[in-house]
Design goal:
Number of strands of chain A: 11
Number of helices of chain A: 0
Order of helices and strands of chain B: EEEEEEEEEEEE
Structural class of chain A: mainly beta
Shape of chain A: globular
Largest interface: A-B, 22 and 20 residues
Radius of gyration of chain A: 13 Å
Distance between the termini of chain A: 36 Å
Oligomer: heterodimer
Number of helices of chain B: 0
Strand content of chain B: over 45%
Order of helices and strands of chain A: EEEEEEEEEEE
Chain lengths: 107, 123
């Protein structure tokens, strides 16, 4: 199985901060990398697919980059509704696997 | 707007079979173009992909669960189902169904999710 490792596991930030979350795959996954946002008690929602494509309706402050084994999710200016847990996922090969999650909290 | 809704027992006894249904509205499973997935999340933990199915019946399963899992579709009811047998407390989780667009015949990301249903395994 391909292991996905996110860092940090949690972070505290203020509204307006620039936030960066990284995701590293245990082997090259090309551009088969997606990002999800999950709020407490809710299902995850797709933010970014294929590394850098923004899902319809997702604010432009979210962006993704990377290729191969190293990927990044950036929130350019953190908003109150962005406090949540973020997961990366690889769909390069089955079984699909997720990172352990990064919880973005309020400083 | 596609909507997915999971349903099934919230409590299952150890060694029994967990059975869940996901009803899809706003889109037809038999229309093709999508794979239909099951994912679970243990309490307070991360996400685990269980497997998926195409309307034709083609399936992919997570090898860690493959011996106990069956995913099927009922196109007449526009539903997919999950059966997980010989359950233990370790199968206690929130179970989600989700849709994956198919590109080049392969499933991709998970673009629509159900709200999830908590299944507890306990005697």
């Amino acid at each position: 199985d391909i292991q996905m490792t996110q860092s940090p596991s949690s972070l505290s930030a203020s509204v307006g901060d620039r936030v960066t979350i990284t995701c590293r795959a245990s082997q090259s996954i090309g551009t088969y990398l997606n990002w999800y946002q999950q709020k407490p008690g809710r299902a995850p929602g797709l933010l970014i697919y294929a590394v850098a494509s923004l899902q319809s309706g997702v604010p432009l402050r979210f962006s993704g980059s990377g290729s191969g084994t190293d990927f990044t999710l950036t929130i350019s200016s953190l908003q109150p509704e962005d406090f949540a847990t973020y997961y990366c996922q690889q769909t390069y090969s089955t079984p699909w696997t997720f990172g352990q999650g990064t919880k973005v909290g309020i400083k | 707007q596609v909507q997915l809704q999971e349903s099934g027992p919230g409590l299952v006894k150890p060694s029994q079979t967990l059975s869940l249904t996901c009803t899809v509205s706003g889109g037809s499973i038999s229309g093709g173009g999508y794979y239909w997935n099951w994912i679970r999340q243990h309490p307070g933990k991360g996400l685990e992909w269980i497997g998926n199915i195409y309307y034709s019946g083609s399936t992919y399963y997570n090898p860690s669960l493959k011996s106990r899992v069956t995913i099927s579709v009922d196109t007449s009811k526009n539903q997919l189902s999950l059966k997980l047998n010989s359950v233990t407390a370790a199968d206690t989780a929130v179970y989600y169904c989700a849709r994956s667009p198919a590109y080049g015949g392969n499933p991709t990301w998970l673009d629509y999710w159900g709200q999830g249903t908590l299944v507890t395994v306990s005697s």
